[in-house]
Amino acid sequence: MRNHTLTGNIKRHRAFPSKVLRNRRDVLVYLPPGYSRFSSRRYPVLYMHDGQNVFDAATSFAGVEWEMDETAQRLIHRKLIEPLIIVAVANIGQERVDEYAPTPGVIETKNHPRKRSRGLAHIYGQFLIQELKPFIDKKYRTNPGAEFTGLGGSSLGGLATLAIGIFYSEVFTRLIVMSPSIWWDDYAIFRLVGILGEKPPLKIWLDTGTDEPGWELARYLGDCLIDKGWQPDVDLSYLEVKGANHGEAAWAARVEPALRFLFPPAK
Questions:
Q1: Is 249 among the domain residues?
Q2: How far apart are CA 6 and CA 182, in angstroms?
Q3: pTM
């Protein structure tokens, strides 16, 4: 069933099962303009966390979506990005904090009563790699190689993106890390970056808004990545948006520059 808020050719896979996580979730797949006409062409793929917020206001948090379908459609038509497939992987509510956190810890905000996370991001990564990606690669004309495969998210989803990218850089190499929850587990992400030996081949978009609590930590994270060998504007793009808060509308506004950095048109 097509929802009137969806733009372009979007396929819905309901209740996609995972043996690794022992649960099910909906998966939406955006196919780029021209997908059906060019029968042999293969496309890079971007997997997005919090999939219900990516394309559809009807299912998204607080009714605000990222408008990733509209933005991708426009940029592809204008030849400002390479045509790509976008896979929006829904979270499943209560288990989100378990699946997106890279280490065990506790979350407590005005929206979240005190909730302990088991820190299953590496297991959630295995679900993506062992179960979802093979399904997508078989069903759609993807370029399955790591250099063509991206991962993205915001908040805890941004934290999960960077952690899974570090854990599994042989699978995902283009990362959208929006407003990551750097504070998680006493700044565990800094420890994860700190123990990196050889720099993995990750191209990273990192951003934050200056109205987010602790936004300066994102600037520090960018500096840590540069210390590890990432080069600004080559394989790391860091953006601070003055006055932007921690919410869907702010992230929607940054989809365009993130896609343009990570999926530039082929020369």
A1: yes
A2: 32
A3: 0.94
